Amino acid sequence: MSKVQAGCSKPVGQKAEEVQPEVESVTSETTKGAGIMIKAGQKAPDFTAGAYQDGAFKEVKLADYLGKWVVLCFYPGDFTFV
Amino acid sequence: MSTDSMFVHKMWEQDELSKMISAGKVLFPMLSDGGGNIGRMYGVYDEDGGVDIRGRFLIDPDGVIVGYEVLTPPVGRNVSETLRQIQAYQHVRKTGAAEVCPSGWKPGKTVLKPGPDLVGKVWEEWKVEMAFD
Questions:
Q1: Domains of chain B
Q2: Are B43 and A31 in contact (CB under 8 A)?
Q3: Predicted local distance difference test score (pLDDT) of residue A30
Q4: ipTM attached to this prediction
């Protein structure tokens, strides 16, 4: 068993024989498999997502925010450092 | 929005974020993107890492993405810059694009009025120093 350095991404399980040497796992493609290409100046793809706010679980739909300015922020994970 | 569940969002707010924020709670919904489907739509899902990297999308009241920034995990964003961009886009929208915001613009700084008279004359209106804080 080897120690895993705590970082901002989640270690992902995989079949043992497919484990790559550490040096090669540093970089990764981010957009593979993406069907839609995001372009500035075009409509934001609508979605619904489960959410937590103010002590409650709820469902949020992007289209419900039409008429407002929205900052949509993705981040690697809760409890990570940056 | 992260790939964490709503349950983990709750615990993160309760155990850590509430101690950082003067309001004592997060003032916007913490969205869950289990499986990364939304991150994939926005081109920010890292299949190998199993996480959404730091994509930040500004969306106007018509639902149009006016700008975005994507950072890989180890470096955080500059929130002041995000706010500046929103203020600039709001100003442009308010004036019906009669006024636009040059590099380094902040509320109160020089705006430009695009039109034939401005062609070749930007140097008279805007100086390089104005690109910086």
A1: 6-75 (3.40.30.10), 80-131 (no CATH)
A2: yes
A3: 43
A4: 0.94
